[in-house]
Amino acid sequence: MEQSKVCGCTGIRSCLVCEQTVKNHGKGKDNTVVAHLPGEVWQYCPVCRKAWSKTDLQQHPVTCESHKGNSLDFHGIEILENFISSQEEMDIVRKIDMWDWKASQSGRQKQDFGPKVNFKKRKLRSDCFTGLPPFSKVLVGKMNLVPCLATFRPIEQCHLEYIPERGSSIDPHFDDWWVWGERLVTLNLLSSSYIIFTYNPTEEENNDSLQQLPAVSVPMPQRSLLVVYGDARFKWMHSVPRNAITSRRIAITYRELSEQFSEGGENFEVGKKVLEIAETYQGEVVK
Ligand SMILES: O=C(O)CCC(=O)C(=O)O
Ligand SMILES: [Fe+2]
User: Fold this and answer.
1) Residue 187 Cβ < 6 Å to ligand 1
2) Strand segments (E) across the chain
């Protein structure tokens, strides 16, 4: 199909803009509900670290007394509320908006700081990479004070902008694990949202009851830091559906190197170079 020039969508991806302007584009996609979710969505509680079939997480602070129904242990999530102040949030957004945004898939816009990765050919190029941006130096320092992020040294930073007017979303996916390591760290700016995890059964599990696992909705409060690792990183796919975006949202995702690009790994020399560039904190958006 001839793809739209009005947005960044290609292939099966679509957004509200191209669905309204390009004939048949996005046909069949449900615009208002979470189209890809086959069954139930349970709510993750950051206090007891379980997902619940019935609960009220609107109350603040969250207590576990409202949880009812069935539950599921859900491993691999840390939520650090109020990781930054409103003033810091405003300063960061002002700096981000001084760079150009690039149209991306599914109604998102993006800005990238990191090596260029060709996932299919497994090639990494760092010649266009000038480092993480200056404002991240303080943020990464603050992350390193959190026990689960004490050793976190990001080499890539991606900014995604979501707005309801474009129907911005991100389809279920795993982040690459050839180049990127276990921890995915996202700073949530401008509005609160949620991220949906859907279990991806292995081939052996395929006919098993695990396939019946519900989707899990994890809250992403404004100004919180979300850390995804372990099972949530490697066994469950994640997505942000259209419904999760009620006003402009900017997500800053930091990623670290995988083991094979780290000390002792077969691509350590390449990784070392990338880390040196990242940690200059002199970066401009990669074109
Ligand atoms: O917007 C988010 O919080 C998730 C973004 C994401 O999954 C990605 O960039 O790979
Ligand atoms: Fe992702």
Assistant:
1) no
2) 41-45, 50-54, 68-73, 77-80, 102-103, 109-113, 116-118, 123-125, 156-162, 170-173, 180-189, 193-199, 215-220, 225-228, 236-240, 249-257
